[in-house]
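Hi V.,

Quick status before I head out on leave. The structure for the redesign project is tokenized and pasted below; the design run finished overnight.
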């Protein structure tokens, strides 16, 4: 289904194929030959989304443009089942495997692979041709690519990137952090009340 969100309807190239159960919402541009499979969600939540030619977005993947961070996915990419991309730049010929997550402000260089269940944290830059192994975490620029067992090193780099401030504009030490976070996030998502099918 295609939805107009905040007065902007998706633009889908005539040669793209969108499964009937996929959702494309708002300021989204789908390029030539793109395939979006069942259950995938591509949504512009304050930032536009551009999906390049011949890219495949598999079942139940989520691609979300956010305030301050658009999503750009280059040509000939594969976004695997259950992958999650928010506010990131994915250059051409990138493989995002099943269940991987790529967060706000990240840049994945051309020809890189983010393997099954791997994470690329916010504001992390992967040079072209980088591989993040299965279940591992990439964080920072230049990136630390670490096993999930190396929690202390990941946490130290992650703290520097300050997820609550960068994504929500909230100080990590705010006493009612989750109250403010959910109220702000809820208000953003509430803007879908006026969406309409196109």
């Amino acid at each position: 289904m295609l939805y107009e969100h905040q007065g902007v309807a998706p633009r889908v190239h005539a040669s793209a194929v969108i499964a009937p159960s996929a959702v494309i919402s708002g300021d989204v541009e789908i390029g030539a030959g793109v395939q979006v499979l069942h259950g995938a969600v591509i949504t512009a939540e304050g930032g536009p989304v551009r999906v390049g030619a011949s890219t495949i977005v598999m079942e139940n993947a989520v691609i979300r443009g956010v305030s301050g961070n658009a999503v750009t996915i280059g040509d000939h990419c594969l976004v695997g089942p259950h992958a999650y991309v928010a506010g990131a730049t994915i250059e051409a010929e990138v493989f995002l495997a099943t269940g991987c997550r790529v967060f706000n402000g990240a840049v994945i260089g051309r020809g890189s692979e983010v393997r099954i269940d791997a994470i690329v944290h916010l504001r992390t830059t992967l040079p072209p041709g980088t591989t993040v192994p299965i279940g591992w975490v990439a964080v920072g620029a230049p990136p630390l690519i670490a096993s999930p067992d190396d929690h202390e090193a990941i946490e130290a780099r992650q703290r520097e990137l300050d997820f609550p401030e960068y994504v929500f504009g909230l100080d990590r030490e705010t006493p009612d952090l989750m109250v403010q976070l959910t109220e702000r996030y809820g208000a953003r998502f509430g803007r879908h009340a006026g969406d309409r099918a196109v």
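Above is the designed sequence. The first helix runs from residue 151 to 161.

G. will cover questions while I'm gone.

Best,
W.
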